[in-house]
Design brief:
Layout lengths: L2 H10 L2 E5 L6 H10 L5 E5 L2 H9 L5 E6 L6 E9 L1 E6 L20 E2 L25 H9 L4 E5 H6 L5 E5 L7 E8 L5 H10 L17 H8 L3 H15 L8 H25 L6
Parallel strand pairs: 1-2, 1-3, 6-7
Antiparallel strand pairs: 3-9, 4-9, 5-7, 5-8
Length: 282
Amino acid sequence: MTGTEATTEKSSTAFRLAYVPGVTPSKWARTWRERLPDVPLELIAASTAEAVEALRGDSADAGLVRLPIDRTGLSAIPLYTEATVVVVPKDHEVAAVDEVSVEDLADYIVLHPLDDCLEWGSPPLPGLPANERPATTSDAVELVAAGVGLLVVPQSLARLHHRRDLTYRPMSQDAPQSRVALSWPEEQTTDLMEEFIGIVRGRTVNSSRGRAQTPPTAQAKQSAKQPTKQATKQSAKQQRGDSGGGRKKPTSTAKSSSASASGRSGSGGAKGAKRGKPRGRA
């Protein structure tokens, strides 16, 4: 295979990005397509467990996941923390308050699906337990709509599973929060991976690693545009010397010559005047 063929094959290889429910990679995907139009970005919807498995099994190059995860062999960069909300029926009494604490849930059945992405710490879980735990967050939302219980989730999941008969209220700071992170196999930090890291971190095209040379500093730009003070003074002095050459004061020699000539002229005139005066006779 020639070098040209290898480059073409590499540029056409897709970058595979797994992402968990509630996480929206569309903004980053648009930036990727603008900067690397020759490298397709393949988006793979998956649960956090499936995304981690895809990273370990080499079926995804990177993943947008919710922490915590088993980070053995994986690198992870936390990106942001999501707000936590409680999902309730619109006619529920909890819907009438502005904010809900964990303690406020003590008298209500709170559903904790098996794919719960919030870290509640040591048992018991908040609220009254349901007869059984729903398999997924989607199943739990259906049970909330049926009036079985309430559900505490990251706000993005509440929006993802929005229903007209349900609403949500923000939880206070005593509730756990979900952190979204970018993860990838730690031994596979490729150039494409570096590009995607730069995108999610908000780097510009010029500041992305390996994309462009470092621009000159402001000081270097200033030096290139303006001469130094010393050079400016020397140039101005030279210009004054060149333009004022015709107005130089006469030298001492010139002064002496001029005075001598004037003296001779004056003396001769006096003598001539003296000779021209008639002598008186006695």
